[in-house]
Amino acid sequence: MTEPDLLKILLQDIAEADSATRMVAAVERLAQAQLEAGVPHLITALGYNNPGAAVAAVEGLISIGQPAVEPLLELLDGYNYGARAWGLRALAGIGDPQALDLLLDAAANDFALSVRRAAARGLGTLHWDELPPASIVPAQAKVVEVLVTVSQDHEWIVRYAAITGLQELAIASTVSHPDLTRQILLRFDRLVEIDDNLAVIARIWLAQKTIQTHIHEILSQQPILEQQISILHNNSNANDWQATLEKLYARKRQSQPYPEGDPHKFREVAAAIFRGE
User: Fold this and answer.
1) Domain of 72?
2) Phi/psi at 275 (nearest 5 deg)?
């Protein structure tokens, strides 16, 4: 069966669906087919007022990947905030940096909390390596600026999403831009002091712990540091990981630094800290 014939059958199934359950099943079949020609129809399904169908459509769009990005950017419903939120989830799942400006605007300015929430989460999942190298740091800095603002949103669920986005960005920039990671960690310290929602505070603690684990994983991959790391884990005085991170990112770069993004930069700073310098 040719793709056009298959698409025709799948769209007929959607047109003939006479219940919410059958609609979900029909959209799932279209999503599973992973037809590029089906992308506009999956985007249409985001606005059916059927959460199950929307979830299936989002999963289908993510599985299709990059070919779905431009149609999403062009066809995203500006009047249906539910469809916008689902569309942003799809863009976040794909992670194409083409969606950066849309996500920034939606996170900062959209009136719908579901849209702001989806955009804030999506800003942390972009594939930064798909940007030109010179554009990565400025783009990440812009994302941090917006997410820091969103972390003060009046809706706790949006603040929660902003923490998730900041966590993912901190992990992504640990080696390539450690100062940005430090900035995010400092922001988390401040948010713990000022936020009054227990769910948000718990999410901040989880983000801090996740970043800590990530940093230790990076350090454990460096043979030169294995002994120092072992000492760190066995030394109760060194278990204050927040203080360790503060030292790590407060270190000044050497007079002749490595190129931006070189892992040696991170490794040498860490080694100096564990030697107690």
Assistant:
1) 1-93
2) -80, -10
Contact (Cβ atoms closer than 8 angstroms) between residue 189 and residue 230: no
Q: What are 145's two structure tokens?
A: 């600026």
Query: Any residues with CB less than 8 A from the CB of 213 and at least 6 apart, and which?
Result: none
Cα–Cα distances in Å, from 71 out to 68, 74, 112, 133, 220? Answer: 6, 5, 22, 26, 42
**pLDDT for 151-207, tens place per residue?**
999 999 999 999 999 999 999 988 888 889 989 999 999 999 999 999 999 999 999
Radius of gyration of the chain (CA): 22
Question: pTM to 2 decimals?
Answer: 0.75
Distance CA 70, CA 202 (A): 36
Cα(61)–Cα(46) distance, integer angstroms? 10
43 belongs to a structural domain = yes
In a domain, 68, yes or no: yes
